[in-house]
Amino acid sequence: MLLRRKGRADREGSPLATRITEDCIHCGACEDECPNGAISMGEDSFVIDPALCTECVGVFGEQMCALACPPDVCVQDPARIETEDELFARAKKLHRDQADSLVLSASTSHFRNDG
Question: Which of 11, 19, 50, 97 has its CA 20 to 30 A from that of 80?
Answer without folding.
Answer: 97
